[in-house]
Every structure is written in C-alpha cells, then in structure tokens.
Amino acid sequence: TVAVVLFTADLRVHDHPPLAAALAAADQVVPLFVRDPGVHALGFDVPNRAAFLAQCLADLDASLRGRGGRLVVRSGPVEREVAAVAAECGAGEVHLAAGVTGYAHRREERLREALRGRGVEVRTHDAVITAVTPGAVTPAKADHFAVFSPYFRRWSQERLRDPIPAPRAVRVPDVVRGEALPPRDGREGVSPGLLPGGESAGRERLADWLRAGIDAYDEGQDDLAGDATSRLSPYLHFGALSPVELVRRARDHGGAGAEAFVRQLGWRDFHHQVLAARPDASVRDYRTREDHWRGEEVAHEEIAAWREGRTGYPMVDAAMRQMAHEGWMHNRGRLLAASFLTKTLYVDWRIGARHFLDLLVDGDIVNNQLNWQWVAGTGTDTRPHRVLNPVVQGKRFDPRGAYVRRWVPELRDVPDRFVHEPWRLPEEERAALGYPAPLVGLADGLARFRHARGRDDRPQ
Ligand code: FAD
C-alpha cells in the first residue's frame, strides 16, 4: 500500500504526525511538496521567504534521502498534482496538516473534492502547525478567545502529546517523478543577513538556544541591542521546527526564561485561533472602528520615508533598516515601527502589514496581520488607544543607543543623551549628521490620532 504525505507549512521530519501516520498505514509513502501558483498569486513568493523555503526543501530532501527516501516536488494547482501523484502510485490515502488560514481551508476542500470518487481518503492532522489546535479551547459563549490572558490560562492546561521521533526509514515508490528542487542560492533581492533555512539549521539553533539563551529570556526579551530572543520564528513559520516540541522542551528545561518563552509561543497559538475563527481578519478590522486611515494618495512621502528608515526617529529607522538587512526585526522594533505608522502617521495598518510581508522571512498572514491589528487598535489589544512613543521607548529599551548605532550609522558618534533625539543637538552638529529631521512632531501626530479616535490616552 502507498500513502501520500503533502507537506505544507511543516517542512520537517521530526515530530511530524502526517508522516508518522502515513508510515504506520502504508508500506511506501510519497513525501510531496507542491509549488502552487495560487500561493504565488497571493504575493507570498517574495525573495527572503523564497530563498529560505528553497533551503528548507533541500534540507528536507536530504533528511529523507538519509532515510532511503526523497522529496517529490511538483508545480501546479495542488489538487491536480496530488490527484496525479496518487493515481501514479495507486495511493489510497493523503495525509496533511490541518490548516488555519482561509487559503488552507479552501485547499483542503479542493483536495477532498478532487479525490472523492477516486477512492483516495484525505486525512488531516491537528497540532502540527500550532501546539494547541485552534478551537480546542474556547470560552463559554464564543467560538474563540478574543483576549490573550484567559486564552493563555486555558492553553497552559492543555496536555500536549509527546513529540514523535523522526522516522528511521522512508520508502518511496520509484514510479513517482518529481522536478528539480528550486535553487538555493543566487536569488535577487535577498537580505544580506538572512538566516540559513532548513530543519537542520533550525534544530542547531534550538539546541544553542536551550543551552545558552533561554535562561536569560525573561530579562533580555526587550533588550534590542542585546538581541536576546531566539530568532526561531522563521523555522516556526515554515514548520522546520515543531511548536509542540518547542513547548515541551522549554517546559522540560524549566525556569523563568523558559516560562516567558512558552508564553510567546502561546501568543502564536492565540493568533492562530483568532484567524481560524475569523479568516477575514487578515484583511478586515477584527473590531470594526470608524478609522479614516490615511492611504498612499495622501501620505505617499511619509510612507516612503517609513519604509526606507528615514523618518528622523532613530528607533523607528533602526528597526526598519534591520528588517531590510536581515529580513527579520526585533519584536520591540516591530511594535514601535507599526505604532509609528498607524498611530503617529495615521496610515492604514494594511499598508504597513503588506510591507512587512514583503520583507520578513517569518512574515505570515496569521502573526503579521493580527499583530498589526493589535498595534493599530483594531484587533485584540484591550487598550486599543495606547500609543508607543519612540523616544521614551528608546531610552527604556536601548538606553545606550547601541541598537540605534548598529543600524543608523549616521548617529554612531552622537552622545548617548542625544541618540534618541538628535534634533536636540546644536543646529550645526545636527546638520552635519546627514540624518533627517523628524517627519512629523510626535505631539502633532498624537493630536491627530486622538482627534480621529476621540480619545485622550497618554502615550507610553
Ligand atoms: P522570541 O521572542 O524568541 O519568541 C519565540 C516565538 O514566539 C517566536 O519565534 C514566535 O513564533 C512566537 N511569538 C513571539 N511573539 C509573538 C507575537 N507577538 N505574536 C505571535 N507569535 C509570537 N511573528 C511572526 O512569526 N511572523 C510575523 O509575520 C510577525 N509579524 C509581526 C508584526 C508586528 C507588527 C508585530 C508587533 C509582531 C509580529 N510578529 C510576527 C511577532 C514577533 O515580533 C515575532 O514572532 C518575533 O519577533 C520573532 O522573533 P523570535 O523568534 O526571536 O521571537
């Protein structure tokens, strides 16, 4: 007997329920990845993620070959390719991870439709892409949690399965042909500091993190210059690491750092259960507001300055330049950059979210869109009118200005006390920096926002 395993956002061999189930049910399996033009049409095929994906696929293929198998890559509409592969090898089952996004749900439906009547069963598996399945914990009177804290309490009580070891052997039928893997190197537009993709690189990073990083996480989480977060997000995004395994291993490790880390993984699941229940939250306000956001037509130059990291606010510019260089941005930087765009410039969160998706290697429809909504105050933040002040936040989370100096070389030699407010330098010195003056006054931005929202919350 033969079974097909369709890999999607789960590019790994460790802790992979669909692969384990297929191997248990059949003598031979076809590990399949389909390059679906539908995904490309949605604009997700950007250089940083394409490069990282190619490395994930190469690594997955190498892991499977090490076990006697190989990865089969095909291009075309996913249901057409899966049906063709199943027919070629006479497969009776297709296994895949249960999806969360609207796209993933439609994919499942299309698969079922294409395979119905051909005697091929589609089996989806939970807790592959998230640690706790969306919908597994719900409040008394709703289909999902809209607030993180009560969700996290319930999430923490869920029993997680034991991680499944990688299989020892994988036998793939010879008849099924695939195409060449996408090239790993030589793409244009890839950020120079991009992390290496793939499960092997992810597992190495995880081992280093558990050995030398996680214990200091609770203290160092917001220290921008210290760069003390795990940077595991790209591996989680492509499923090169399993969230179940991460939570289990962090809990086994124990301590305050591990607890804080597990909490962040809880945030990841929280957003997944919101989007699973409300797929349109990827484009529409989760909570409807009367916002009259400014768009490209009126705020074209301000948006361009924000994108290019020349707003004149050192923390915002440092964060935006880090993203351009590394395809990744520190969480505190993301919060500040997004707050500045939406609440100081009063620009539509969708414009900012699109730009992040164009560059972030971990950029994903769930975490990106819902974090943007959280910051814009249209999402799940229980204090939707809060505004982050980049100067106050800079002094707090980058007190010596080391993060700013790393990414904004124009400010390298500015004394600490001016590094977050270079406009306070004597005019001659300021002009010599070659660094822009602030795009708008913070007070003006705040006044516009308060007026628009009709609120008077103090900035933080
Ligand atoms: P760590 O601090 O080491 O955290 C561990 C893991 O927890 C992360 O890898 C991530 O999977 C998860 N996590 C942490 N914080 C969050 C959060 N707020 N929401 C969801 N999951 C979280 N994360 C993405 O994975 N993809 C995105 O596209 C994305 N866009 C964002 C956009 C904005 C405006 C903001 C404010 C946050 C966004 N985040 C996104 C969340 C967070 O910034 C990143 O997950 C984190 O910075 C990744 O770095 P890390 O792996 O070192 O995180």
From TrEMBL:
Residues 177-188 have a biased composition (Basic and acidic residues). One of its GO terms (molecular function) is deoxyribodipyrimidine photo-lyase activity. Its EC number is 4.1.99.3. SUPFAM superfamilies: Cryptochrome/photolyase FAD-binding domain (SSF48173), Cryptochrome/photolyase, N-terminal domain (SSF52425). Its cofactor is FAD. Keywords: Chromophore, FAD, Flavoprotein, Lyase. Coiled coil: none annotated. Gene3D superfamilies: 1.25.40.80, DNA Cyclobutane Dipyrimidine Photolyase, subunit A, domain 3, HUPs. Belongs to the DNA photolyase family. This is Deoxyribodipyrimidine photo-lyase. It comes from Streptomyces fragilis.
